[in-house]
Amino acid sequence: MEEFKYKEKKLESIKCNICDGVDFETIENKSVNNLDVQTVICKKCSLIFINPRMSAKDYDEYYMRFYRKDRSEIKQKIIEKNNLEKNFENARRFGKGIISYMGEFVKDGLTIDVGSSTGGILYGMRECRPNLKLLGIEPSTDESNYANKKGVETVRGLFEDVKLDLKEKATNILCVQSLNHLLDPKKFLLWAHDTLQDDGHVFLAVKNWRHQVRRAGSLHLGVQIDHVYMFTPETLKLLCEVAGFQVVYMDVDEGKNREDIKIQKNNGLNTHHVRIVAKRLNSSLKSDFKKSLYLKTRMELFPLFVKFVYIFKYSHRFAFLRKMLHI
Question: Is residue 215 within 8 Å of residue 272, measured between CB atoms?
């Protein structure tokens, strides 16, 4: 089978997506599948991302022909019907979980899910809130067709390319497990800001990279070329603020005990994630890029510190020690 020739791709250097900074420090040079991928941290705002990275054209090729093979643990692009159903049911539980945990911020009206897959999240939300008007945006033909069959109106395409003829402003916009795949996540939030009504909210669920690498025990195990941006709770909050939103709810899995994690999983929410609800403002908040945040984040991501946390908090070999110390 043909392989993706990453080493032959011409990489491009980019500015920081949050603060437009150009002063970075390299923190990793390999990806989880041993590619030469340079991961940097911005010294101004602490955003972590791949830099240099492939062009948009090369990412298009990667997603169309190689992504599912490269990330073999993720479902195949050509999905059997029963797997589409499983995808839908899992997402349906997640949608109900949004209402359970964040329902006070969900308002009746047009609710758009960007990267909506089989439509399960929207479907689950409407089961709890019948007055929601649903609209999904999904690039996969199979998944968007399935969503439409389930009664979740879905437009096939990327949000950057889809021309929506909306007769009303949205009250809720969701982006679940998709933001770190985007080449310009700030552009998505600016689009959401333009598409939402004045008091509308954006709902984000993004993998917490700091938590991910701590549980893995190594930085390179959290690097993959499809996750162009790697967020921490702090940088995700900053990104929302520079795009004109105020974070009104943030739920972080770090520090939670196993019982709490089990409860949220039973309610449909994924682990290792940051969940944010941000309210649209008429003007941007003044972003505070603190040097102390960079220094704190950098210390937390030193390889020896990551390994230390892994050994004492997550390694099965030291479970007896954690039990003795009540950790």
Answer: yes
